[in-house]
Amino acid sequence: MRVSLALVVVLMGACDGDAPPIAVPVTGWDAVLVTEIAGSDADGEVVLELVTGAVRLADGTIVVADALASALKFFSPEGDLVRTVGRHGRGPQEFTTIGWLGRCGNRIVAFDNNTGSVALVSPRGDIERRLQPSAHPSQSMSLSFMRCAPDGRMAFAGFPRLLPGGCLDDMHACQPMHTLLSIADGDGEITDTIGEVFAAEMRPLGSLMQFAMSNHALFVGASASDTVDVYDLNGRLRGFILLELPEVPPTTANYDYAIGERVAMSRDRAWQLEWIERMRRVPMPEVRPRYSGLFVSPGGILWAVISHPGDTLTWLRSVNVDGNVGPDLRIPHGLRVLDMGDDYVIGTYEHEGTGDPHVVVYRLEPRG
């Protein structure tokens, strides 16, 4: 694979955390389960309802976004619930729907889908302030995506709000949509703009923009392709990475999950069933998106999640700091990946018997 010198310079500078990048050649990865958090405790009390994000803090604390509870839940490294932050509402200590959770520097960042606001939360769980960023300085476009770098900088994108089915019976409405992608400082003030990029194909299991952010680069891809564009944080395109991913037809489980995900944030069961039935009228795509997520570890390794929710295993492809594809990671359990570190991966799945959400933490061990 050819990689431009400019891209190598960007990637080789992308070692972001206190931990140095892995210095020895890595020939493979092993994943060891260390923590599992169940959706209900031993007494049957609900612990988690709908998991939309999770991060691990420096002391091992696991913070989980529960969208239906409109709260952040803090767990010990062993998986015990320590505290709950937030409730449903629009007050200073409340959320409507938490759609994404990330780490920006030493703060936790919770994105509220309905209000478009971003809450900056301390590791102790204090909501320190809220930002109300725009997706672009020249437009009042609703904020729909965001990502963070370890140094606290952010990237924002948005696209118009649509009905959950996207195109439904009118396949012409499934045409790809585009959005504006911008880079902001730690206060949410936009510093640079990449411009218009692909956002989504508004159909169940359609292609979706995936992006990840390090201190030196922004990785942006349309998941229908196996390439990822690499921008520096001044908004300049520096090159691309070829992930070398195969085309894979979707399974019924993939499609059912994609449909269910679009209605999961509602408690109105009749509404959910109506929209599920309507979305099932849209035929499955012949090929599913090449990947379902992008993550960058603090040490600079880019991870593409090749598997999709509904698969029986989790499959990730690594890209080393020199821009070349590294060894894959396979976890023998189907997960929706939520966060990647230098030495861990966090994911969620629905328990087959109870339907409860579970959050799991695996320790990553490189093979040299």
Structural class: mainly beta
- Tally of DSSP β-strands: 24
Rg on CA atoms, Å: 19 Å
Terminal CA distance reads 23 Å
Q: List the uncertain runs.
A: 1-12, 14-24, 160-165
Largest sheet: 4 strands, antiparallel
Give the overall average pLDDT: 85
Number of helical segments with 4 or more residues: 3
Strand proportion: 35-45%
User: What is the 3D form?
Assistant: globular
Q: What is the string of SSEs from the N terminus onward?
A: HEEEEEEEEEEEEEEEEEHHEEEEEEE
Quaternary structure: single chain
Strand order of the largest sheet: 1-24-23-22
Percentage of residues assigned to helices = under 10%
Short account of what is shown:
With 368 residues, this protein is mainly beta. It contains 3 helices and 24 strands. The protein is globular.
What attributes characterize this protein structure?
disordered N terminus, 4-stranded antiparallel sheet, single chain, 368 residues, mainly beta
Describe the structure.
It is a single chain. With 368 residues, the chain is mainly beta. The protein has 3 helices and 24 strands. A 4-stranded antiparallel sheet has the order 1-24-23-22, with no helix packed on it. Strands 2-3-4-5 form a 4-stranded antiparallel sheet, with no helix packed on it. A hairpin with a 5-residue loop joins strand 10 and strand 11. The longest helix is centred in the last third of the chain and has 12 residues. It is globular, with a radius of gyration of 19 Å. The N terminus is likely disordered.
Describe the SSE topology.
Layout lengths: L4 H8 L15 E10 L13 E6 L5 E5 L4 E5 L5 E5 L12 E7 L2 E6 L5 E4 L5 E5 L11 E6 L5 E5 L17 E9 L5 E12 L7 E5 L3 E6 L4 E6 L4 E6 L9 H12 L5 H11 L13 E4 L5 E4 L8 E6 L5 E7 L4 E5 L3 E7 L6 E11 L1
Antiparallel strand pairs: 1-24, 2-3, 3-4, 4-5, 6-7, 7-8, 8-9, 10-11, 11-12, 12-13, 14-15, 15-16, 16-17, 18-19, 19-20, 20-21, 22-23, 23-24
